[in-house]
Design a protein that fits this description.
The chain has 755 residues and is an alpha+beta fold. The protein has 20 helices and 31 strands. The strands form eight sheets. A nine-stranded antiparallel β-sheet has the order 1-8-9-10-11-16-15-14-13. A hairpin with a 2-residue loop joins strand 29 and strand 30.
Length: 755
């Protein structure tokens, strides 16, 4: 036993309370599962308030009332991929945008780059269909529940309970239903808007198993089948549901039937046991946050659930509505597409810290696989080498168009590339850096660098710029000067590429990226307010939903409160966003602003805006609706299209309040509200390859545990604010406000507050 361990042992013997707390902490670590469930009273009358289930590929929404249970089905790769416009061909290129903007030809701009998105219904995400379960007379729905730990839906009836889940490995949804009278399949009426023929329906009964199916022929050779089989045993029926497509094989009907037959053979108990075991492993692998707010705690648990329900490695990434496409006889809002001017990036921002590796690697794998498509887009649309990513795109990576300033902005790919850089920062995986992160970011960076032109002042700039989504789709939105949005992404990208190339030992490449960055224009700061402007000579002058001018603060972290020269700019910019009011904000704006406040060290305000997000912009099942759903005066918008990035941003904001690791320094509880006196987290990840757990009681940090997952030098901002603490390692040294230690991979540093 080392002397340090002996000191810790004597402390525990002498001071009872800390030792009891350590025991409690160990118990919490041993039970990493959500502490809340989603409970909803019946009836649920609309799809967007339903119980969400999913396995990354298949998704389902459970809702209904009376004696009818609706199961709205989705599959992540169900897409109509017919292009709406020939982007990258004559008349539909970046050079054409520049020419039309110079000519002030607004009508022509809209006709080529916006009208196809608005007027042509495809490309679009497709709904899968609906299964309606009708109960026998005398059985009625009383309530709905989502058991987060088991990812199981429960529908409480006047007599009995319906249970169901989406299997983790077999692409089948399985439900156990007492007193089932009939099953009906409903084709989405919205498919008529795409010119599809009616579905082919059929059914049969073999050995007591009733099977029904609906086969839909879509566009470009896509065929998909929704099939359901029912097997009755006593008073209950086992219902198995699946969607198979022509991407699975030549005969999707046979494939779907085979899957559901296997599920029926296994039965509910065995399948549920395997399913629950998968989810138990998931909850053990991800971070757990415990906050002193029951409603917020429930929401944070729910969002962590989304990462596994809506995304897995090997499945498509999370689009605007995830695997829960609207079931409202309309095509999904904004075509359910992949919006890369905020939505996809913010959807995955919390995954790094939470340890949602399946979701994160799925997103990274998807973009890596599309790199050849992104290279073609850079060549055909922008006329440069490298790679470029559309700001709005379909599942196959092709541009959809839309407001051209943002849907075809040349810097959106840099924001996507941040996911690769952050993954390396959080894992310090040298192989990932060499094989994926640097090659991907470098490809995007080369295209961006090739588009830069020398301005009158000798600085490099883009020929056209914009600041999402300021001035909407007007000519005014095309800025002749560089926006801070574009500048921040360019400065970040070339700085990150310098860092990555240097880490790989390629100093020549690093110097090249560094030289490009030094020639960029500096970020524009408004002289009157001292805040980040929209662009040089163009201060922010109104409430705006997208904090595009403040990208340098968050999420890019170019300006920080740790740097004395930046502190005033950061605080003035953050204050100015609030001063213009929240009238034009959406739900995601509140969650983003909360994260920005946390990054600025303003915990009380961060909590306030996070609470406003939860109170004002959630439907009763937790889905983020862009507009305010109350009349609290939080926003002028009161519409309710569901997009999920606001949910994930809320989780990220809470993470930022509890742990930050930017700039090479780990900060434990860096932005807590005074109202969060008792709070803890387990296994949050921090940049640098650190896995951190910490507990706080009565406003005092009690214990910190940091595991090195990669090996390296830890710089830890004193988590005990100068109080005496006991550490388990004698080689820890104090340097100013930080503790510094070199930890090999797998080593653990623990510190305990001494009363």
């Amino acid at each position: 036993m080392t002397s340090t361990m002996l000191r810790a042992s004597r402390v525990c013997a002498r001071v009872v309370a800390p030792c009891l707390f350590i025991g409690l902490a160990a118990t919490v670590r041993a039970q990493p599962r959500p502490t809340s469930n989603l409970r909803l009273a019946a009836p649920i009358t609309t799809w967007d308030e339903a119980i969400p289930l999913g396995n990354g590929l298949l998704g389902g929404l459970v809702w209904g009332g009376g004696s009818r249970i609706n199961l709205s089905l989705d599959r992540a790769d169900l897409w109509d991929l017919r292009p709406a416009a020939p982007y990258g061909t004559e008349g539909y290129r970046w050079a054409d945008i520049q020419r039309l903007v110079a000519a002030r030809a607004e009508d022509s701009l809209h006709m080529r780059f916006d009208d196809p998105y608005e007027q042509v219904p495809h490309p679009t995400k497709l709904p899968g269909g609906r299964v309606v379960l009708t109960l026998e007379d005398g059985r009625y729905i009383q309530s709905f529940l989502l058991d987060l730990a088991r990812a199981e839906a429960q529908v409480q009836l006047t007599r009995g309970t319906v249970r169901g889940f989406f299997g983790t490995a077999d692409s089948v949804a399985l439900f156990e239903v007492p007193a089932l009278r009939r099953v009906d399949l409903v084709r989405p009426a919205s498919l008529d808007k795409l010119g599809y023929p009616p579905a082919t329906v059929g059914g049969d009964t073999v050995a007591g198993v009733r099977t029904q199916w609906m086969l839909q022929r879509a566009a470009e050779g896509l065929t998909y089948v929704l099939a359901v089989s029912t097997q009755r045993t006593g008073d209950s029926s086992l219902v198995a549901v699946s969607i198979a497509t022509s991407a699975d094989g030549a005969d999707p009907l046979a494939i779907a039937r085979h899957r559901i037959a296997d599920a029926l053979t296994r039965g509910y108990l065995l399948s549920a046991r395997r399913h629950a075991a998968w989810w138990a492993r998931y909850w053990r692998s991800v971070a757990t946050l415990t906050v002193p707010d029951t409603a917020l705690q429930a929401h944070l648990d729910l969002v962590q659930y989304y990462y596994a329900a809506a995304a897995r490695r090997g499945t498509p990434p999370i689009p605007l509505q995830g695997v829960w496409t609207a079931d409202a006889n309309t095509l999904p809002p904004w075509k359910g597409d992949l919006h890369n001017d905020l939505n996809t990036q913010m959807t995955y921002l919390a995954a790094h810290a939470s340890g949602a590796e399946e979701a994160m690697r799925g997103w990274l794998d998807y973009n890596w696989k599309l790199l050849p498509t992104y290279r073609r887009f850079a060549r055909d649309f922008y006329g440069v080498d490298g790679a470029a990513i559309p700001g709005v795109m379909a599942l196959d990576g092709r541009a959809l168009g839309g407001w051209g300033q943002y849907s075809l902005s040349p810097t959106m790919g840099l924001w996507v590339a941040q996911s690769f850089h952050l993954e390396w920062q959080y894992t310090r995986d040298a192989d990932f850096l060499r094989d994926r992160a640097y090659p991907f970011v470098a490809a995007i960076g080369r295209a961006a660098r090739a588009l830069l032109q020398e301005g009158p002042n000798g600085r490099l700039r883009l020929p056209l710029s914009s600041s999402p989504e300021l001035y909407d789709n007007s000519l005014k939105a095309w800025l002749p000067q560089s926006s801070n949005f574009d500048l921040a992404l360019l400065h970040w990208a070339f700085g990150a590429l310098d860092e990555m190339a240097t880490a790989l030992g390629d100093t020549t490449a690093g110097q090249g990226w560094r030289a490009t960055r030094t020639r960029l224009e500096p970020l524009a700061i408004d002289a009157a307010s001292g805040a980040l402007a929209v662009a040089a000579g163009l201060p922010l002058a109104e409430s705006h939903r997208h904090f595009s001018n403040a990208m340098a603060i968050h999420p890019l972290g170019l300006l920080t409160v740790d740097a004395p020269v930046d502190t005033l700019v950061v605080q003035r910019t953050v204050n100015q966003l609030r001063q213009f009011g929240t009238g034009e904000w959406m739900g995601y704006s509140y969650a983003w602003y909360s994260a920005m406040l946390a990054r600025s060290g303003r915990g009380d305000e961060a909590l306030r805006y996070l609470e406003d997000y939860r109170r004002g912009f959630l439907l009763r099942n937790g889905f983020h609706a862009n507009g305010e759903q109350t009349r609290l005066g939080l926003s002028n918008a009161h519409y309710r299209p569901v997009t999920l990035e606001g949910n994930f941003l809320a989780l990220h904001a809470a993470q930022e309040m509890l742990l930050q690791g930017w700039g090479g320094v780990v900060r434990v509880f860096p932005a807590l509200s005074e109202r969060w006196r008792d709070v803890s987290f387990r296994d949050l990840r921090a940049e640098g390859g650190w896995r951190v757990s910490a507990w706080r009681e009565r406003g005092v940090t009690q214990r910190v545990r940091i595991e090195s997952t990669a090996g390296g030098r830890l710089r830890l901002r004193d988590p005990f604010n100068g109080a005496v603490a006991e550490w388990n390692r004698a080689d820890l040294r104090r340097v100013g406000a930080e503790y510094v230690i070199d930890l090999p991979k797998g080593a653990v540093l623990t510190g305990t507050f001494l009363r």
